[in-house]
Amino acid sequence: MWLQQEESRGDQREADRKPILLYYLAAAVVCLGLIVGFQQYTIRYRLAHQARDNMAGLAKSLSSGINEIIANKLDQFQRMAQDPLFTQGNVVEIAAFLQKLQSMQCPNTQLLFFASPDGTCISSRRTRSNISDHNFFRQALAGKKTVSEVRRSQVDDSWVITLALPVKVDGQVKGVFGGDLDIRAFTGSARTASFGKSGYACIVDSQGLLLCSPKPELVFNLRITDSGSESLDRLGQKILQEQSGFGRYRWDGVDKFASWSKVPTSGWTVVVTSPVEEFYGVSNSILYSVLAVTTGLFLLVILFGLIIMNRHRALERQRYLSYHDKLTGLYNRAYVEDVLKKLDNKESLPLSIILGDVDGLKAVNDTLGHANGDKMLVEIGGVLEQSCRKEDIVARWGGDEFLILAPKTDERTALKICDRILDNCRKASEKTIFKLSISLGAATRKDLETDVESVTKKAEERMYYWKSRKGDRRQSEFDLLNPLLWNRQPEDWGNFDRLKELTLELGKAAGLSEKDLTKLALLVLLHDIGQMVVPRSILAKPGALTAEEKALIQKHPEIGYRMAQLSPETQDIAREILAHHEWWDGSGYPMNLAGEEIPLLARIISITTAYNAMCSERPYRKPVSEAEALRELKSRAGTQFDPHLVQIFVSMMQRAS
After folding, report:
1. For the segment 493-534, what is each residue's pLDDT rounded down to a tens digit?
2. How far is it, in rounded angstroms, from Cα 300 to Cα 110?
3. What is the pLDDT of residues 59-93, one digit of tens each?
4. What single string gives the DSSP state of each residue in 535-591?
5. Whether the Cβ atoms of residue 183 and residue 210 lie closer than 8 Å to each other
């Protein structure tokens, strides 16, 4: 009979393994897909990185060449401008000299010119004009070497740029010398440049206008920030704003890479572009080769590896949970009991045992919820681990009690550990919404004749002794945290639970973090803490309040603020308590804050308290329906309440109904 039962159990275990193996196989296939995807990503990344480097090198080389041509031309013009004839000769002599300079030294220049400070200009073609309204003239007259934007030539209607620089005598600007140059002298190298099979270079000016491209129909007709392609328009903005860079865009249905480099002297930008597929096409053949070689071996190795690893992890997890507390990660009571058997020898003496009982856990559970109570236990566990030595054993003994085993530790050293724990609790309390406090008791086993249970009992007695010694102080701290409980009537608790639920739901809908939601929960409890000083007869008065009674009630935010500042547990919400009666339009109290000057949590609770109050019965009025309350909130959005939060709250309530 027993053998049949074992065979039945074995068959069941084998049946259970089959779906697990299928899961492992599916996991292996997924892992293979991820690795293949990663390989493809890596190959593409490297190719893209290589493309970036090569394209950036070409763009920088072309921009440097253009920049050098313009810089050399400016230097040449600078030497010409130093001739004294420009400041001492007459118009006829200057015109003849300009004509001579153009024919002998600047044959590739459309014209040269000289302009007096008033803008009167004479050119090498002996034409006269006034250029005072040109930006390049004003900049040169101010003492700067200037390269103009691309403009139409006065000679043959071609596209030119004007180079202009000041003519100085004894440091004083006496005129402006310059010349018009056909932009084809600068764009030729870019126009003929190629990259890969179908990549090319182009030039855009400082406004994004295309000056050079293999497609003549686009030159001077396309602006890269207004191209009709959303991705090219975005990239065009970066090209105009950044000195150099690399990006990706889509044009005429083709994905392309682009690299760019600015020409400092002119403000132009050289852009090198090439289709993405030209680089990525290579990656597919590489990927298929890698996939064919590794797929079979990978599946086998991963499959068996996952089976072995999963079994190992299951055993480790089972072993871990058998000796560790699930919440804090510390050792548990079962582990301590096993270890005590191993420490029952002379080598472990003196053996100190420290017992600790967390202070105020029930208060935290009752006021902030059990989630925060669990956080408190985790924080205390962390403090204990931080305060103890590596050889000490820290365990959660049960509930809110912790135990520390300290081998080869005398009573004096054990007390030092206790002092360190208490000090670290004080420090850690500065970063939590609740105070970390623990009552400790220590006792030491000095010889094998002394029973471990008696040492543990002695440590427990000392722990409870110290807990009773500081019980009054701890209770007063809790009372400071939760004084509104004194001023509540039993019938208020139903409304409070509803208010807390609504407020936290609105907080979540508004996207608050877990930390802010914790603060919000505490704010729900304590926002009217200042009403402690207001007599219950005034709060429950059925008739209209007198001016004095109203003034007393309106002081409760300030009183609550001062009370909250007295305790570390409530300091984080003191500002929200002060502001929870402020209005969005600035007509609230006590500080007349307006808009987003009001803390977010205060804006949230002002909405939920108003709604909850309207839907609840009061001594001075009957409750209204939920629909009427929502209409009232919407009517006050933008005056009393944050309009955005009202919209979120109304939508939330409508969905709930």
Report:
1. 456 778 889 999 999 999 999 999 999 999 998 888 777 667
2. 76
3. 899 999 989 988 998 998 999 988 888 888 888 88
4. -HHHHT-SSPPPHHHHHHHTTHHHHHHHHHTT-TTTGGGHHHHHHTT--TTS--SSS
5. no
Q: Which residues pair with 274 in a beta bridge?
A: 257
Q: What is the dihedral of CA 629, 634, 635, 636, to 10 degrees?
A: 90
CA 42, CA 54: separation in Å to the nearest integer? 18
Split at pLDDT 50, 70, 90, the class of 22 is low
If one counts every other C-beta atom within 10 angstroms of the C-beta of residue 86, the result is: 22
Residue 260 near residue 195 (C-beta atoms within 8 A): no
Comparing CA positions, the residue from 528, 584, 516 lying closest to residue 561 is: 528
Both tokens of 69, joined, read: 């041509």
* 395: nearest Cα among 406, 408, 405, 409: 405
Contact 400, 357 (CB under 8 A): yes
Length of the chain: 657
What is the C-alpha to C-alpha distance for residues 563 and 530, in angstroms, rounded to an integer? 7
> How far is Cα 273 from Cα 195, in angstroms, rounded to an integer?
8
Task: Note the pTM of the prediction, 2 decimals.
Answer: 0.41
582 touches 593 (CB < 8 A): yes
Alpha carbon distance 635, 615 (integer Å): 16
- pLDDT confidence of 556, banded at 50, 70, 90? confident
Angle at 631 between CA 546 and CA 649, to 5 degrees: 100
Q: What six digits make up the tokens of 343?
A: 């420490």
Of 644, 653, 579, residue with least CA distance to 614: 653
Residue closest to 569 by CA, chosen among 489, 632, 478: 478
Query: For the range 64-68, what are the long-range contacts, defined as Cβ-Cβ under 8 Å and sequence gap of 24 or more?
Result: 64/261, 65/189, 66/186, 66/187, 66/189, 66/190, 66/203, 66/263, 66/266, 66/268, 66/270, 67/263, 67/264, 67/265, 67/266
Strands 199-204 and 438-445: unpaired
Could you count the other beta carbons within 10 Å of the beta carbon of residue 256? 21
Nearest to 537 by CA among 561, 553, 556: 553
